[in-house]
Amino acid sequence: MIRQAVLLVGGRGTRMWPLTVTMPKGLLPVAGVPFIELQFRLLAEVGVEEVILAVGTDHEAEWRAYADSVTQPSLIVSVEPTRLDTAGPVAALQEQLDDRFLVLNGDVVLEGELTEFVARAPDLPATLALVRVEDPSAYGVVVTSPNGVVERFVEKPPVGTAPVDTVNAGLYLMHREVLERYPPGRLSFEQVVFPDLVEAGELGAVAIDGVWLDIGTSELYLAAHDAIAAGRSRLVQFESGSDPWVWIDPSATVADDAEISEAIIFPGAAVQPGATVHRAVVGPGAVIETGAIVTGESLVGEGAVVSAGCELANSVRVAPGVTLPPGSITFSPPK
Predict the structure, then answer these.
(1) Residues 60-64: what's their mean pLDDT?
(2) What DSSP character marks residue 149?
(3) How far apart are CA 79 and CA 59, in angstroms?
(4) Helix, strand, or coil here: 11?
């Protein structure tokens, strides 16, 4: 069993802007549950009692407030005053780390059997969790030997040329001594630590089955809800079934004749009569006025107003507090 984990949640969440202006990406709701809590549920399966949140200065206050509200697991907020890449924030924690611990990326969760991953990890300084994907061309694939030692990485191979279909799932089992080899400062797992371990024959890998939820972009965020609605997640479910799925915060206001499908409506938002929200996200306190259309994986920021006659599509992002005048943006020119 593993007592301790580090969650890398220090990114600014720019690919999910404007939702991440005031909310860290790791706290974005997934079927009404802050995404990070899915990781807590997974970690509990291997006995993790303490989680260190490696955060940046952008959302320090929000993370501290959240940590104060959580009783299980025990949360420690570690602030990264300057950007230290992916491994630097973990290396900076050396004095607080157990001899063996888990590291997780903050915006993905692999719902595999974590107990199996830990049990099958080879006796090496570090081990990656791998997941199989249909199209490896968008990722860096990981090639291993029959005994589970990583031989090489192949970064974004052209379609049809990948030697394997296994990619890094953003979950690592590590020994503290790996990070003790490097001086303090900026350090990358992907560019420095893992290649060094491969060269020394000290990096293991275990492929595990399970749904992979990623909230890194609006497309992936909505796709995660698709997977949950299809019953593929074992960590979270919608409170009540619906087809197509929707998640509407209880404090939001949605008119009876508004058309809402495959959409996420944040607290305090309002969707007025005759408005349509499909395959999109409406941020806190935002207003979608009568007859407006928001679709195409668009994101509407906190307090923004999409006025009547507007049509959003093609992953449009509306800045917080902005009011789009009536008919000011459309993807369907007049007939």
Answers:
(1) 95
(2) B
(3) 10
(4) coil
Residues 204 and 251 in one domain: no
Q: Residue 315: its pLDDT value, please?
A: 95
Q: In degrees to the nearest 10, what's the CA dihedral of 228, 237, 173, 1? A: -150
Task: Tell me whether strands 276-282 and 253-254 are parallel, antiparallel or unpaired.
Answer: unpaired
| Residue after which a domain boundary falls, among 214, 233, 263 | 214
Q: Which residue range(s) make up the domain with 88? A: 4-214
Burial letters 41-64, b for 16+ CB under 10 A, else e = ebbeebebebbbbbbbebbbebbe
Confidence of residue 174 (pLDDT cuts 50, 70, 90): very high
Residues 162 and 263 in one domain: no
- The string of DSSP letters for 185-253 reads S---IIIIIHHHHHHTT-EEEEE--S-EEE-SSHHHHHHHHHHHHTT--SS---SS--SS-EEE-TT-E
